[in-house]
Amino acid sequence: MGVFNRLFKKTPQLEPADLSILKTDVHSHLIAGIDDGVKTIDEAIVMLRKFIELGYTKVITTPHVMSDYYKNTPEIINAGLDDLQAEVQRLNLPIAVEAAAEYYLDHNLSQLIESKNILTFGDNYMLFELSFTTEQNRIKESMFELITEGYKPIIAHIERYPFYFNEWAKIEDYRNRGVLIQVNTNSLSGQYGPQVKKMAEELIDRDWVDLIGSDSHHLGHLEVLDGLRTNPHLHKIIAKENLLNKFL
Ligand SMILES: [Fe+2]
């Protein structure tokens, strides 16, 4: 090896990771026509085939529930799931499909918690998201309500909220209260911007990530994930032994 190569040698590229170690994806929008995810069952099937190709054996899909935009109920979501599962069975695809939801923290959520009309997955895990623009003032109360009612709340893609950029004490406080942290795999690509990428990397380095999710709305998101399989932080997070994806 010449001097130039020795001095400027790049870190060797990692082998593309085998995502089958993850087993389950926990965040996606695969129920046709009820949110900003897929529009048809065929589109969902194309994505499920890509999940299979990547090594996943289970997908827990999580349509938006947002009182102003996506008035999805457990009945609506489960009806869509039935249709999707029927097609998966008809095509004999080797992947299990379940559904929960991604709950937006709004005035309606308290009512849903009170009436226990919440879709969960695994051990009573409940995925929720926040406004991207402002830090809502009911966040702590809502988390407390959820935990009191026996739910295990998971903050969806915490790395994407600008008001949490480098707010490590706040994030640690949530974790101490029993809130779980989900990071989007695609945040590592920079597709949501450099700060989001940095946050995702640091959350992984701090070992604060409980679950990862594709948050895939269309095939393009899974193609980005495919391209990330040589990413060192993706390698690091999927190697985490107690990552919850592996136990769902
Ligand atoms: Fe989502």
Report strand order across the widest sheet. 3-5-6-7-8-9
| Quantity of strands, as a count | 9
- What would you give as the CATH superfamily? Metal-dependent hydrolases
* The level-1 CATH class: Alpha Beta
**Main beta-sheet annotation:** 6 strands, parallel
Computed structural class:
alpha/beta
Identify every distinct bound molecule in the structure, by name, code or SMILES: fe (ii) ion
Beta-strand content: 5-15%
Chain-averaged pLDDT:
94
Summarize it.
The protein is of the alpha/beta class. It has helices spanning 3-8, 41-54, 74-90, 107-114, 139-148, 168-176, 194-205, 219-227, 232-238, and strands at 24-25, 58-61, 64-65, 96-99, 102-104, 125-129, 152-155, 180-184, 211-213. The model has no long low-confidence stretch (mean pLDDT 94).
Topology:
Elements: H1 3-8, E1 24-25, H2 41-54, E2 58-61, E3 64-65, H3 74-90, E4 96-99, E5 102-104, H4 107-114, E6 125-129, H5 139-148, E7 152-155, H6 168-176, E8 180-184, H7 194-205, E9 211-213, H8 219-227, H9 232-238
Parallel strand pairs: 1-2, 2-4, 3-5, 5-6, 6-7, 7-8, 8-9
Bound molecules: fe (ii) ion (FE2).
Describe the protein.
This protein has helices spanning 3-8, 41-54, 74-90, 107-114, 139-148, 168-176, 194-205, 219-227, 232-238; strands at 24-25, 58-61, 64-65, 96-99, 102-104, 125-129, 152-155, 180-184, 211-213. With 248 residues, it is α/β, with parallel strands linked by helices. Helix 2 links the parallel strand 1 (24-25) and strand 2 (58-61). Helix 2 (41-54) runs parallel beside helix 8. The mean pLDDT is 94.
Identify the notable features of this structure and list them briefly.
TIM Barrel, 13% strand, alpha/beta, 248 residues, binds fe (ii) ion, six-stranded parallel β-sheet, globular
